[in-house]
Prior knowledge:
Helices cover 46% and strands 22% of the residues. The chain is α+β, with helices and mostly antiparallel strands.
Amino acid sequence: MKDSSGLNREQLLSCLDFGKALTSELDPNRLLERVLEKVSKLFPSEYWSLLLMDEATETLRFELSIDLDLEQMKDFRLALGQGAAGQCALKQELLVLEDVKQYDFFDDKVDELSGYRTKSLVCVPIVFAGRTLGVLEMVNPRALDKESIELLTIVSDYLAIAMENTRRYRKLRDMTIRDSLTGLYNQRYFYRSLTVLVKNCNAEEGCFSLIFMDIDDFKTVVDTQGHLNGSRTLREIAQNIQGCLKDASFAVAYGGDEFVVVLPDTDRFHAAETAREIRDSIKTATFLTRWGRNVQVTASFGVATFPDNARNIEELLALADQAMFRVKNTGKDRVELSLN
């Protein structure tokens, strides 16, 4: 039995099951795992990929795939209008290429990188409220019949809703733990994390370090550049700090022009190395160039480590803060370790 769209009962039930599975999932990582599982069963093909839109650069990047080595594709980007996926994202229209050689816009760079040979291709836009969120690609599909295409269109609508749901959920969640100006973690997340770190270190005889940092003479930046550009400078400094961090380390907007970096499983000497790297990165950077300004700043740093320097959170914070203020009071633009 088929409905008016031409889909049979089994296809409709599969579509319903797919929709339930996706729209009920709010965790973005688990959502993509479900996409991987469900789509591969519904639409057999040589391989398929999900490309997501980076709104900042208006480019598509490979997010997940079956059989395609994503490591090979990690730096690959498609601009809007570039290749079949780029055309699909730009026009927000489903593309069915039964023979890719017949289309001038087909781009074989993915084939060159992956070693695959694309003969036929289906690109499905994932669109929500007029915004292209990504493109679902089926390479060398086993079936290109009308029913499969209709089912793909319905699936892409479900996927768009699910992706928007996870985006909104993530945004709401981040509002509770992130600073709205810099995007770094806030004090609420910071103190909660410290409690966990202390507990883990006591149980496993581990350590972690804190870097307290304060931007030197930041009031001068605000006085000369204005409050708006002062905020922009802090945002750029935060991005600069983030670029120096690895693994489980994270940065916190502590208040005003003060930041804290948390370094799990890091002793005081390696923490000092990280602090010096951040210091050098900030000192050599030029801020506000996007707005036609050239602002340069320095920062002062204090480092303390648990449990080497302190046995509780309050003591650790105080020692890192004191080390930073010693720098502020003796010339600035330097890193100092806790004396305790």
